[in-house]
Specification:
Helices cover 68% and strands 4% of the residues. The chain has six helices and three strands. A three-stranded antiparallel sheet has the order 1-3-2.
Length: 200
């Protein structure tokens, strides 16, 4: 095991959360035990669990920032209170300045809301990555290239392994069975090599 396994109680102590908060995170699927004892006690890899909890905290914080804004400031045009008719005698200069101020406020609030959404998305991606639900494009490309190289090498070697034996066989069923056996062996070898590569 690459990391220290701890109970939910110890995880709560290490992260400063309550036991109830840890239990709720498990029920919601945000925390998945790495091992479970025979008695049913959940165990977690400490560092990995800390990363997941930290990422979830960022998500909650970013969402609360956005949800905490007044409705009129979450996007779109703010609703302005009706202006009393007695206050309509403003100069054109004052109106222009007020309009520019409102535009600045709207741009600031919109930028702040967008930043909160981006932070929430980044935190969610980090959470998914910690859970093993997210794989980088580079890793997928590398695995595909490795798989292609392994299959190509085994296919190229197939004629050398079988040519002498096939030359002495006349029964189509025996030839078919030999080819099937060799292909199954090759598949097993490919799977083993891929597992070893993933472990590295």
């Amino acid at each position: 095991m690459s990391d220290k396994l701890v109970s939910s109680s110890e995880l709560a102590r290490q992260t400063g959360l309550s036991k109830q908060a840890i239990s709720k995170a498990i029920q919601r699927g945000e925390l998945i035990p790495d091992e479970t004892t025979k008695s049913g006690r959940a165990l977690f890899e400490l560092e990995k669990a800390k990363k997941i909890i930290g990422a979830r905290s960022l998500v909650n914080e970013a969402q609360s920032r956005h949800e905490g804004l007044p409705t009129a400031l979450k996007g779109g045009r703010p609703r302005l209170s009706p202006v009393d008719k007695n206050q309509t005698e403003k100069t054109s200069t004052d109106e222009v300045e007020d309009s520019e101020q409102l535009d600045d406020q709207r741009r600031f609030v919109k930028a702040k809301a967008m930043r909160a959404e981006i932070l929430a998305e980044q935190a969610q991606m980090e959470l998914d990555k910690s859970k093993g639900l997210l794989v980088s494009v580079e890793e997928v490309k590398k695995q595909g290239a490795d798989l292609g190289a392994i299959i190509m090498t085994d296919l190229i070697a197939l004629p050398d392994r079988l040519s002498s034996e096939l030359s002495t066989m006349n029964d189509p069923h025996e030839i078919h069975q030999m080819l099937t056996d060799e292909i199954n062996k090759m598949v097993k070898v490919v799977r083993t090599k891929l597992k070893l590569g993933a472990a590295e």
